[in-house]
Amino acid sequence: MEQNANLKNYQSTSYTAPDEEHGQSLESQCLSNFFDDDGRLKRTGTVWTASAHIITAVIGSGVLSLAWAIGQLGWVAGPVVMLLFSFVTYYTSVLLSDCYRSGDPCTGKRNYTYMDVVEDNLAGMKVKICGILQYLNIFGTAIGYTIAASISMVAIKRSDCFHKNGKVDPCQISSNMYIIMFGIVQIIFSQLPNFDKIEFLSIVAAIMSFTYSTIGLALGIVQVKANGGFKGSLTGIGIGAGLVTPAQKVWLVFQAIGDIAFAYSYSMILIEIQDTIKAPPPSESKVIKRATFISIAVTTVFYMLCGCMGYAGFGDSAPGNLLTGFGFYNPFWLLDIANAAIVIHLVGAYQVYCQPLFAFVEKWAMQTWPNSQFITKEITIPMPLSKSYKLNLFRLTWRSLLVVLTTFISMLMPFFNDVAGFLGAIGFWPLTVYFPVEMYIVQKKVPKWSTRWVFMQLLSITCLIISVAAGIGSVAGIVSDLKVYKPFKTT
């Protein structure tokens, strides 16, 4: 239907004289210059634009916890675990990319979203389970981003306080006010209706992510130089008096694995990125595979540098947020810039991750109550120096309520590392491993008990065990933190 609509619009400016040489009408040739095989405007994405999208999606606030994660695992296991996660993420992304089109990789029906791919290949209850996990992960990520933003805002305030008053002032500051401030900003930006309207936020967020990551890396190198060498140990934080108990060590290792998984999470938007690539030849799957390899390689090198240099600078005392480990004095202005960049990045990242959830709920509401004025009516509001804004009361109400809920939960448990580990645990196996593996098996008709089938199932089971362990470790960390934290009071 979409293609027919495009054809109808185009007919007013074209005619259908035959092209004798090629057996096509000039109209068909002209249409092929403007529209893809599905009737949508031609996609223009390349391997480089796709790589940029993936790198922007992957490199986020999770990079700040990698020094702490390596501190729990040590110099041997830390880098090895990071490399394993990069390999698994790349491998399953390749499997997922082959499912973008149904059937033929160049001419088959397109699937525009992750959920479309699942529905096309698996259907039934698995589609519902995938939807629940995906949107739960998005909701949890919004909470994690709110917590991380408040931590950075508090760090800026404490830095300025220490610089002004000296060490005699403890500068105890509650994060609640800053969580609320972040929530208010998100309520405003959440009224932007869709992805097309938040493009500027994504661009700014990408620049900010590289800004604070680069500052963290540079400060880690400076810290190593100041120490006169590398800190840390082969096995990470030790067990014993004044350190941690064996049980705590186990939970911390599991939580660290979850943090690393969180840092590599992006599969839920891979199909959306693939849908921006221009039509074959070569096929979109070949282009996205190259882009995935480039982006995962770049990201892993960046993660290795930030995580390892952070651990080398602080050793087993590496902080959960790398930027909070450099003190509040010198260079305080550079740390303020880095923390401000985190806040700005997370404003955009919050919106990027929540847009699929916003769109899903609003589409469901429209289908359920198509005659409701509250849901469908848009009020035109004139805007100075710009086009008018269309206000939808349902969008205003429900999106604001969602932001309020994530803000409230963030105030109840502002533990970035534990929350990040938990999100990584619950999202890694199903969204990054299980569904891509199962869909690829169906799409390519991989014979049961063949070597490839057995390898894929073993990989899936192994990642399931890792996800469960990481989830348990993160929950244990949250429970431990709640024992000493008093909601809305602790500074």
UniProtKB/TrEMBL annotation:
Primary site of residence: membrane
Single biological process term from Gene Ontology: amino acid transport
Gene Ontology molecular functions: symporter activity
Intracellular or extracellular location(s): Cell membrane
Regions that span the bilayer: 50-70, 76-96, 135-156, 176-193, 200-222, 250-271, 291-312, 332-353, 396-416, 422-442, 454-479
InterPro entries on file: AA_transpt_TM
Keyword Disulfide bond: no
Gene Ontology cellular component list: plasma membrane
Amino acid transporter transmembrane domain ranges (all copies): 43-479
Comp. bias (Polar residues): 1-16
Keywords annotated in UniProt: Amino-acid transport, Cell membrane, Membrane, Symport, Transmembrane, Transmembrane helix, Transport
Name by which UniProt lists this protein: Amino acid permease 3-like protein
Organism (species): Carex littledalei
